[in-house]
Amino acid sequence: MKDLQDLDWDTILDYIESEQAALLIGPEVMHFDGQPMNKAWRGQIWDKFRAKIAYYYEQDGLFLFSNKIAKNDAARFVRKFVNEREPEEGVYQKIAQIKFPLVVSINPDTYLSDVAHKYGVRHRFSYFKSRSKATDDVEEPQKELPLFYNLCGVVNDDESIILDYEDLFRLIASSVSAPGLPPKLQTALDKVRLFLFIGFQFENWHTQLLLRLLCGHEQTEKYAANRQHVDEETRDFLLHQFQIEFLEKDQSFLDALHDKCRSRNLLRPLANPASAEEIDIIKLIQTGKDLAAPLDVLRRQTDNTPVAHEATLLMGRYNSLMEEKNKGVMDSRDYFVEYNRLIDAILTTARQAAAV
Prior knowledge:
The protein is α/β, with parallel strands linked by helices. The protein is built from 14 helices and eleven strands. It is 50% helix and 12% strand.
């Protein structure tokens, strides 16, 4: 295990500055009730739906459900479990601040994006959809407009999260063959020369397979910081197979990295935290299927304020966008760019209204 003081920090910071570094987040980054987040919600599923589960493969964290209805019930439970919990903001603030152009998570939550929105860090959020929408592209990740990407789905889209082997195999199959990962995400991954891992559970075979899909090429440096002890056999395997070097505990590493980035001006500024009204809109954006609901709330919140007209204009922009999409006259890539710009404008207007 390498000590933090022995790291070549200049090289790490150079890769971040040149947009050739990516951060990968695993479930150990956040704990609930003394457990990593994935074990916490899977344990709750097992306790609550045991009568509807034919088998629980605890080592892999996957279920065999009695039927589709039981699986749907479990997916809705995970959504509620994750969305009702408040994460430790400090961890996600530091991650959002460091100028990684790309952060990939194997967790199904939106905590990083939520915190980034709350503190005014512009970004793009997307997630892998292994069915017909798998080719939905993303904007090119950049230091000034990073991409936060959930590889294993998001709780707000029940069909995207990984609950059983069928979900896992579909993810793997879709990743290695057509339609594959979004093209701009794959291009960004190909450019990465430094991968940093925080909170990963490396013992699982499917985690090791995902590592191969994401960063298997040998010309990259890879460092992993874990809260939990990784057994020597697993550590040796990962070192020889993937050239991953292990560091001290994740929080110590993240704190040190954050401090080093400050010294090189590689931190994004944080705005004052969003108001309660802004957070209501953020939650609607994250959990909804479209922007109609957050725009409606924004219109009511800005009524009789200097930005009321802006809210009306945004509603018009959104209606025009949806009309073009439904007519099939807009390229999907242009649609997602404009959709994300609308999100930026909604949040900016909400912040302006809160300041009145």
